[in-house]
Design goal:
Radius of gyration: 12 Å
Mean pLDDT: 80
Order of helices and strands: HH
Strand content: under 5%
Distance between the termini: 21 Å
Shape: flat
Oligomer: single chain
Low-confidence stretches: none
Largest sheet: none
Length: 43
């Protein structure tokens, strides 16, 4: 999915900028993504 790739690029750039708040956001997104894929597997 192109949108997801764009988001990942943005977040990678933000992490490279060493923004702690952004890192926390990325961590949250990773958790959400994991939960989302788990839910998809359950369906």
């Amino acid at each position: 999915d192109e949108e997801v790739q764009d988001l990942e690029m943005i977040f990678r750039e933000a992490i490279e900028n060493n923004d702690n708040q952004t890192r926390e956001l990325v961590g949250l997104l990773e958790v959400v993504r994991c939960k989302g894929s788990l839910m998809l597997q359950l369906v």
